[in-house]
Amino acid sequence: MKKTMYEKIWDAHLVHEQEGETPLLYVDRHLMHEVTSPQAFEGLKVNNRPVHNPKSILATMDHCVPTKNRDQPIQDPIAKKQIETMADNCRTHNLNLYDMENKFNGVIHIVVPEHGFVHPGMVVVCGDSHTATHGAFGALAFGIGTSEVEHVLSTQTLQQKKAKTMLIQVNGELKSGITAKDIALAVVGQIGTAGGTGYVIEFAGSAVKSLSMEARMTLCNMAIEGGARAGLIAPDETTFEYLQGKEFAPQTEDWEKAVAYWKTFTSDEGVQYDQTVILKAGEIAPQVTWGTSPDQVTAVDQLVPAPEDFDDPNLKQNCEEALAYMGLKGKVKITDIPIDIVFLGSCTNGRIEDFRAAAALIKGKKVHENVVAIAVPGSYPVKEQAEREGLDKIFLEAGWEWREPGCSMCLAMNGDELSEGQRCASTSNRNFEGRQGKGGRTHLVSPAMAAAASVEGKFVDIRNWN
Amino acid sequence: MEVYKKHESVVALLNRINVDTDQIIAKQFLKRVERTGFGVHLFHDWRYNEDGSEKSDFELNEPAYAGASILVTGDNFGCGSSREHAPWAIKDYGFNTIISTSFADIFFSNCFKNGILPIKVNEEELAALMQEIEGNKGVKFTIDLKQQEISTPGGIKIQFETDAFRKTSLLEGLDDISWTLQHSDKIKAFEEKQKQELPWLWK
Ligand code: SF4
Question: Which intervals of the chain form a coiled coil (chain B) (predicted)?
């Protein structure tokens, strides 16, 4: 029988299956951060259970960590407690933790690939919905709740139901300046935030194949914004090349065998998916969200929709509420929307290529007088690489702030946040009400679009800007 | 885990779609290291004024809904972040049943792990339930998980689907981890095989 790559990974990890019971799936890698783990460790303690395989775990601190004055104690006492609890738990159970002082510290989904911790064909979980990022390696990677974190800690397995499969094929070539972020937003715009519910998405097609490893991570990262548990991209030479030589990648003596094994995790030719969506890469323009849900998105050269543009009464009402929250009127040009803040970072767009793309656009220019722009590298290795390339100077000379790594303004738990009514061009992944600060207004864009907006003080079409 | 019993309760109506977990429990409350105490923060931004008083125009502040353990709400409930603090807050507030046309995946499975029954109904059924609540605020519905049935004083009877395994777990208050640990042998065997075939994963 022909199988999709999802089904192959599933079959390779099935520990137990019986009529009337939820199947048990083996988990190879477990990623952790400070926010969703404390209650799971508490559960272990109460029930006197050990961690099944400490070596399967990589942990970091990212959500609550400050991006400035890192040498000073954390101000917020509850954040401080969370950080300390994480450190205690990792010490007690002997887990590999890149804490705030560690030179590898950063956002979990940036850190993990940097060390080659996830390989094709693995099952990977984390108490974090953007675990989908690691699907870029052809691993089945998805977010779980804290009770499930506890379950994986104690049993190395998860009770899982099999998902349906969706193929999203992006054919042709992307136009210059169009990035994986634009593909991701265009996909979410097309399928909606619930379109992928119950599915695992496989991204394929020539435009996806030609993406770099980092760009693939950006694309898979946002599969969850389309409601899908996971996104997958078939492993290929790009994947193998990225992994080779990394700390947790198979070493020389195992390499050939590992690659041969990884190559088996591609979908069989002609296999049936439960649903197929086809996009033409050449038609994707730079995307900008205008509302409070990632599917409320349009091309930069378009107008903000008005409630009357929607027939469905629910969508009409959604549009009305979103515009009210966003302080926007329908029919306004996207390029006429002024912005106050620019945020470059997050697990979606906090990698070195993102900083290169933004730096290339702002080099020799100045941040608009009404704008505050902050660059937050996804990890210390990203930060150091950028500094080696002199990118920090380009940002600083243009008037940007150059910060320490962390989730920062992606979810504004560490004090980096928008104030009421402030409007942000953000390279993160969610534009929900209050996500970046109470009353803050978020427009999701690519790093290049964010960079150009920092100079102009409003959105510009980067296809004809410089 | 608490046993899920057949019960009759006041029903609260939150007629909104795409309610995301950031709204259910805002990030400023995620820093607790315990599982409890989240209920007072449920729907914080919608529920409270700047000064901490309750907003009179927020649906759940409706006095007739006091003590409700059943929540009826719109499509795609619980989307966004995977935070389990969302079902913790819902449970801590007092809800043990949520009725909607659809739920986000992670939220849906998180509910069962916390003794909350999420029930999927179709659009017409949801509309009928909403209509009955709106016409009679404070109305009590009965949820019978054993029979998989919602019944209302207005005469609506809905048979809902539910996964047999999850149903048993809720009805018996079973803990997932103990269930899985019965299969320890199989987990061990899987690992032994992986060590043989994919040795680099264990170095
Ligand atoms: S950067 Fe944002 S989306 Fe990514 S892990 Fe941190 S908070 Fe979550």
Answer: none
Closest-CA distance of chain A to residue B100, Å: 14
Backbone dihedral region for residue B160 (phi beyond 0: left; psi -120 to 50: alpha; all else: beta):
beta
ipTM score for this prediction: 0.94
- CB burial of B126-152 (b: ≥16 within 10 Å; e: otherwise) equals beebbebbeeeeebbbbbebeeeebeb
Nearest-Cα distance to chain A for B92, in Å, is 15
The annotation places the binding site of A for [4Fe-4S] cluster at: 347, 407, 410
CA distance A359 to A357: 6
For residues B59 and B105, is the Cβ–Cβ distance under 8 A? no
Name residue B97's beta-bridge partners: B70, B117
Chain A residues in contact with B176 (beta carbon < 8 A): 147, 151, 159
The sign of the CA dihedral A159, A165, A171, A174 is negative
Which ligand 1 atom is at minimum distance from the Cα of A410? 2
Q: Which CATH superfamily is domain B7-172 in?
A: Aconitase, domain 4 (3.20.19.10)
Q: Whose CA is nearest to atom 6 of ligand 1?
A: A407
Residue A34 in contact with ligand 1 by CB distance below 6 A: no
Q: What is the pTM of this model?
A: 0.90
Band of pLDDT at residue B149, cut at 50, 70 and 90? very high
Distance from the Cα of residue A318 to its chain's centroid: 25
How far, in Å, CA of A357 to CA of A180, rounded? 12
- Map residue A169 onto helix, strand or coil: strand
Domain boundaries, chain B: 7-172, 175-203
Q: What mean pLDDT is reported for chain B?
A: 94
Query: Which uninterrupted H or E stretch holds B188?
Result: helix B184-197
The alpha helices in A244-328, defined as continuous H runs, are 252-262, 313-326
Judge whether residue A51 has pLDDT over 90: yes
Residue A29 lies in a domain: yes
Could you tell me the pLDDT band of residue A161, with boundaries at 50, 70 and 90?
very high
